[in-house]
Amino acid sequence: MTASPHQTGPLSGIRVLDLSRILAGPSLTQNLGDMGADVIKVERPGSGDDTRKWGPPDIEATHPSLEGWSSYYLCANRNKRSVAIDLSKPQGQELVAKLAAKADILVENYKVGGLRKYHLDYPSLSADNPRLIYCSITGFGQTGPLAPRPGYDAMIQAMGGIMSITGSPQGAPMKVGVGIADLMCGMYAGQAVLAALHHRHQTQEGQHIDVSLYDTQLAWLVNEGMNYLISNEVPARRGTAHPNIVPYQTFATSDGHFMLAVGNDRQFEHFCTCAGADHLAQDEKFATNPARVTHRQELVALIEKLTSQHSSQYWLSELQQCGVPCGPLHNIKESLEHEHTIARGMVIKMNHQMIAKEVKLIANPLKFEKTPVSYRIFPPRRGEHTREILGEELGLDDQQIDQLNTRKIIEIAPTNEEPETCSH
């Protein structure tokens, strides 16, 4: 496939058909789109991606009839073209199958077997397109006793163990503040898709990829999961403390808190010197990290007596000069407006002709030397590109498209007249 005008970057020339919604699949396909893939997002007429209505907040638009631009939707749907097609109707299924026949990658997050009745499952589509890489994202995977169940981020965090180690030791289990189970599933799925793309380059064959929120949640338990497998001791909540390194947590100061991240014995010695407490580094109970882990409670209490004597800024300044890793506790405003965030280009601005002002978005963190990511298409309105895609990709003329629209097989949003633009 040759690159289209919508493509630039390391995945230029790759076509992605996105049948996913909410976060795991859309975050994956947004990453592929940022890297240059041409992503076609298939949405339900009349409603579209569930997250379009997951607000407020949403963005102010110039036209009162516009809807579906919640901040949640905006976080995972740029660099996509939206086509609204009713999959419950045979002719809608036929349109999607034709798009899949021209795709390199298909991403879907329907329940197990949910697309089989539409003849849009992997066996059906790969018969016409054996090079298709078909990625299924589900709550619990394609096999196993829980496979039929739907999966949601908070539920997976609870079942997958992460909530049991998140929060205060004296408090209740806590979920992570964002949909991390969804997001990490999308990250793992992205790796799988790119690996399958490499395999296809070598063999010319596509394949089915089975990725679940539950499996990936277990995988990113990482050291805490291994702590249990090796010791048979169930990890507990430790607040901001690290299970295997001490001192590695937040400490109170005279006016707030800061994060201390001592990673080895030398850094602990430097901390003690900076804090005027060399005797702690010389004490055999604290001289090595295993000893500090064993005597965690005693040491943490001693350190907090020291840190509470001065302000957060004092400790941040002094410890940085001593080469001791530490950092402030920023809220999201402080994080996104920090000078380093700006210097790294991690907040971008994009325009859409139907929005009165530039909209800030969080940038892609990947920095390619030769094939940089790009921001070409503002998160689209539902069906914004329906006419364009059916015309350019499937060869339908305006009359045929209008007939499909009249029969409610598709939905067409008002046509753009101006291109979207992006600035840092």
Explain the overall architecture:
The structure is a single chain. With 424 residues, the protein is an alpha/beta fold. It folds into two domains: 15-219 and 369-423, Crotonobetainyl-coa:carnitine coa-transferase, domain 1 (Rossmann fold), CATH 3.40.50; 248-333, formyl-coa transferase, domain 3 (2-Layer Sandwich). The protein has helices spanning 24-34, 71-74, 90-101, 122-128, 153-159, 180-203, 213-219, 222-231, 265-274, 278-282, 289-294, 296-307, 312-321, 332-336, 339-343, 386-392, 398-406, and strands at 15-19, 38-43, 80-85, 105-108, 133-138, 207-212, 248-252, 257-261, 326-328, 347-350, 359-362, 410-411, 422-423. It has a seven-stranded mixed beta sheet, with helices on both faces. Strand 4, helix 4 (122-128) and strand 5 form a beta-alpha-beta unit. Helix 1 crosses helix 6 and helix 6 (180-203) packs across helix 7 (213-219). The chain starts with 14 loop residues before the first strand and ends with a strand. The model is unreliable at 1-5 and 416-421 (pLDDT under 50).
Radius of gyration: 25 Å
Which stretches of 5+ consecutive residues score pLDDT under 50? 1-5, 416-421
Under the CATH scheme, which architecture of the largest domain would be assigned? 3-Layer(aba) Sandwich
Biggest sheet, open or closed, and with what strands and sense? Answer: 7 strands, mixed
Please give the alpha-carbon distance between the first and last residues: 31 Å
Compute the number of strand runs: 13
Helix content: 25-40%
- Please give the CATH class of the largest domain: Alpha Beta
CATH superfamily of the largest domain: Crotonobetainyl-coa:carnitine coa-transferase, domain 1
Q: According to CATH, what is the topology of the largest domain?
A: Rossmann fold
